[in-house]
Amino acid sequence: MNARNIISSLIILLFLLPGTATQAQRSQFYNLKVENGLIQSQAMCLTQDKSGNLWIGTLGGLSRFDGKNFTSYTIRNGMLNNEVNSLATDAQGNIWLGSPVGLSMFNGKTFTHYALPQENKMPMPRHSAQEIKIVNDTAWWCAGGAVYYTAGNKLKSFPAPFTGGYISAMLPVHDDLWLAGGGAIYHMHGNTWDTLQFNTTAGEKSPVVNKIFKDRSGHVWLPTNNGLYKIANGKIVACELKGQRQPVIFSITEDKTGTLWLGTNSGVIRLSGSTVEYYNKRNGLSDNFFYAALTDAEGNVWLASDGQGIFRFSGTQFTALDESMGLRSSQIMSIAADKKGTLYLGTYDAGLFAFENGVVSMLPLPLHPISTISSLCYTHDSKLWIGTRSGGLWRYDNTFRQYAMPEHHFPSNFVTSLYEDTAKRLWIGFVNGAMVYEHDSFKTVVSSGTPVVSFFTIGRDSVLIGAEKKLLLYSHGLVSDFKTMSAPDSSSVQCFILRGRELWLGTSDNGVICYNMETKKSYTINKSNGLQSDFIYNIVTDNDNNIWVGTGYGIDKITPVTGGQPVVTFYGKEQGITGMESNMNSAVKMRDGSLWFGTTNGALHYLPHSVSVSPQPVSIALQSVKIFGENIADTAYFDSTDNFYGVPYHLHLPYKKNNISFTFQSITLSGAQQLLYRYRMDGIDVPWSDWSPTNSVTYSALPPGNYIFHVQCLTTSGQATRELDYPFEINTPFQKTRWFRFAILGACILLGISFQYIMSSRKERRQQLLEKLREEEQAKIRQRTAEDFHDEVGNRLTRINVLTNILKSKIDPTPAVMTILNRIQENTGQLYTGTRDILWSLKPSNDNLYEILQHLQNFGIDLFQDTEVNFTFIGTDEKWHNYRLPLDVSRNLHMIFKEAMNNCLKYSGATTVTLEVHFIAKDALQLILKDNGKGFDMDSIKKGHGINNMNVRAERIHGKLYIDSKPGKGTIVNLSFKIPPNR
C-alpha cells in the first residue's frame, strides 16, 4: 500500500472513532466542476485578477469564473500547452501561466510566450509542481527544479545558492528571496544568503518543501511532504497536527480570520490556533489531492482538487442534515422542535426521525405501509402530533396513538397541516376540511370539502385559515370569509405569519404579499423584484424580525426597510443550499434563534450569527454591448475593445443604429444571484430604475446625442457598492446638423436662383423662338419682297431704259434732247444698280458673312474695273460660312464700305485700293479699307453726308469706325464690330 493510501485509511479510521466525530452536520462546500462549466476536473492552480475573476489552471486548459459562468481557453486560443501547472496575476490584470513547456502571459486577447533559456531546455515532468510570483514588474517562475525570472521579453535563469540541488519552492518578496532545496531553506536579503536546516535525525531525509508561505503577521510557513513546518526565531520548527500522522501538504492559504487552510493528499486541514479541523468526503468535501488553495478578495476560501473541480468555503451559516448523517430519506416534508431543542423530522418515505445532540435517531411510527408525514406540531403539553397523508393523525409522548376516520369523524385520513394557537387548541387541516382539538375532543370547523393548508393566530380567539384560493377567519366559534380587498384575495395562499400588524402571506403563484391590517394596503415581493421563485412553501421570522421563506428555488431572507423597498437576500447552491426546493410545514425557529428548513435534499440549519462571507463585488463588468441584438462588428464604430469581453470603447454609432442593449454583471465569487442592480442613462430624462436582479437592459430609438450608461449594484447589506459608467455617442444625422441647415438654406437660395434662371431661360427661349419665328417670317417677307421688287421695279426700269433708246431713234437727236435722254438712261441705270443691291440684301440666303464679304469684293472689282485703280481683297476664308449677320447689320456694313469705295474712286486719285477682313477677337470682326491716294486733312475737311452716314451706320451695328487720312499719305477706313450671336 502506498503512502497516500495509508494516510487516507488512517484519516477514515480516525473519523470512525467515537471521540473524533465532532461534526454531525455536513459542512457546506460549494463545488464547481465540469458540469458547471469548468474545462477539466483536475484543478492544479488558482489566482484572482484585479477585476475579481477566479482563474483555474487544470490539466485540460485554463478557465475563468466570473461568479456565474466559466470561460475557457486551450491551445486553440494560443496557449503553449493545455496543462496549466501555475498561475499568477500582475498589477495590469495580465494572467501568467506556467506549463510543462514554458511560461506565458495572457492579456485577454493574445498569449505572449517566454522561451526557456537554451541551457535549460530540458523536458519537465508532466504535472510537475510549479509556482509563479509577480514582484513589481518581474515574473518569477519556479518549475522543474529551477527558478526563472523575466527581464524584458526574455526569460533568464536564477542561479541556485547551492550546487547540484533541486529547487522545490520559492518566495520572492520585495528585496527578499526564499528558496527551498537541497534539504534546507535559503534566504537572500540584499546580496547575503542565510541557510536554515531541518532538524532531522541521522539517516533521516529532510522533508521536501512544496510551498513557502508568508502570512499577514509575517510568519513563514513550510508545507512539506511530511507535515507543516514554521520558521520561528531563525529555526525551522515542526507543527504537530493533532489527530493524524503528518500529511503531505501541497498548498496553503490564510483566510480573513487568520485561519490557515492546508490542502493535503486526502482532503483539507483547517488550522486555527491550536484547533485542527479535518474536511474530507465524509463532511462535505473530498478525499482527493488538493494542489492549490486561495483566499479571494471577499474572504472566500477556494480549494483546487485533483479530479472533483474546485470547492468554495464561505462560512458556516448553513449546514445540512441528510442521509450521510443517519437519515434514511433526504426528503424532509415536515419539521417541529420541542423546548429542549430536539428536532423532529417527518420524511416522505422513511418515517419519523429525531435529531438531538448531533445524533439522528428513528422514531418507529407503527404505520404500515409507511406513509408520508405531511405535518408535525409539538404542543405545550409536551406531545408531538403527527399528520400523515394516508394514516390520519398520530400523537407521540413516548408512545404512539392514532386518530383516524371513521372513529373520530375525520373528513379524511389525509392531514395537510397542524397548528397550536395561543389558546392551546390544536388545529388540523385536511385535504377536504378542518377540525379543532380542544378538551380531548375534535370539532369540525370547515366542512365544505375545501383543502385547508395553514392556520395562524391573528388576534384574541381569532385564527386565520388558509384554504384553497381563499382565506377564512374563525372568530368566536364562527367561520367567515376574510377579505382584504387587495392582492391576497386573488392569490393562492399557502402559509402566513404575523409581524406586528403586518400579515405576511406566502402564495403559490404570486410570491410573498405583505398586508397591513391597519392601513388595509398591501405590496408584493416576487420574481419581478427580488425573489427567485413565486412558489412559497413556508414562512418564518428570525429574532431580528427578518422574514424567511422557503421557495421552489432556494431560500430567501426579506429584510423590511422603513419607508423603502425590502431587501431580499437569496440563498442557493452557492451558499450551501443542497436542496433547492423547500416543502410545506417544514420551517421552524429554534430557541437559540437558529432556523431549520426542510427540503427535497435534507434539512438545512441556519445559524444567524455564524461567520460567513457576504457578496462584496470587486467590480462591475460590462459583458456585452449589442445593436439590435447583434454584436458590433463594424470597427468604424469604435476605437478599441476590452480584452476579456470585447466591449467596444469610444463607441460612436450612426443615428439609425439606435437600439442598443447592455449586459452587465458584478464580479463577486460569493453569490452573484444575491445581488440587485439599478441603472440609468445620462442623456435621457429617465430616473434610476428599481432595484432588481435583472442584469441586462435595452434602449430603443435613442435620439442622437452623447450618453453615459450607469449601473449600480446593491449587496445583501442593503448598501449600493460599485458603479459602472459607459460613455457612448449616437451621431447626429447630417440632415439635423447646423451645417445641413445652412446647406438647406443655401440650397433654397440656389433653388430660387435656379427657378428664376429657369423662368428667365424659358422666357428667353420663348423670345428666341418668337424672334426665330419673326426672322423666319421676315425672311419669307424679304424673299417675297425681293422677288416682287425684282419683278415690278426691275422690269419697269429695264422697260424705261429700252423705251428711252427707242425714243432716241424716233426723235430729232438735238443736243438738248440727247442730254436729257442720256441722263434718263444714266439715272435709270444707277437706280437699277441700287435696286439690285437692295434686292441682294433682301434675300435671306445672303445673310451669311461669307456672302456679304464676297458681295463687297465683287462690288469693289466691278467698281474699279476699267479704271487705273488696282483693287485687292484680303481675308477670304471658308470659316465665314459659320457666321450669319442680321439684315440691318449686313445692310449697314455693305453701305458703309460701298460709300467708302465710291469716295475712294471719286476723290482719292489712288492707284491701289485694298480691303482686308479678319478677326481681332473671338467674335469681333475688323474691316480695313486702304488706298494710296492723295488723302486729305481730317481737321480742315468738311464732313459731308457720306462720312456722316458712314458713322451713323457704324453706330447702328454697335461698331467703331475710324477714318485716318493725311495729305499725300492716303486714307484708311477701319471698322470693327461684334458679330451678333447666331440664333
Distance between the termini: 121 Å
Average pLDDT taken over every residue: 87
Shape: elongated
Please give the radius of gyration in angstroms.
58 Å
The side-by-side strand order for the widest beta sheet comes to 1-30-57-56-55
Secondary structure: helix percent: 10-25%
CATH topology type of the domain at 848-983: Heat Shock Protein 90
Sketch the major β-sheet. 5 strands, antiparallel
Q: Given this structure, which CATH class of the domain at 848-983 is correct?
A: Alpha Beta
Would you report the number of β strands? 72
Number of helices: 6
Name given to the CATH homologous superfamily of the domain at 848-983: Histidine kinase-like ATPase, C-terminal domain
Per CATH, the architecture of the domain at 848-983 is 2-Layer Sandwich
Sum this structure up briefly:
The protein is an alpha+beta fold and 983 residues long. Among the domains are: 10-38 and 240-315, Thrombin, subunit H (Beta Barrel); 40-159, Methylamine Dehydrogenase, Chain H (7 Propeller), CATH 2.130.10.10; 619-731, Sandwich (Immunoglobulin-like); 737-847; 848-983, Histidine kinase-like ATPase, C-terminal domain (Heat Shock Protein 90, 2-Layer Sandwich).
Characterize the structure shown.
The protein is an alpha+beta fold. The protein is built from six helices and 72 strands. Among the domains are: 10-38 and 240-315, Thrombin, subunit H, CATH 2.40.10; 40-159, Methylamine Dehydrogenase, Chain H (7 Propeller), CATH 2.130.10; 619-731, Immunoglobulins (Immunoglobulin-like, Sandwich); 737-847; 848-983, Histidine kinase-like ATPase, C-terminal domain (Heat Shock Protein 90), CATH 3.30.565.
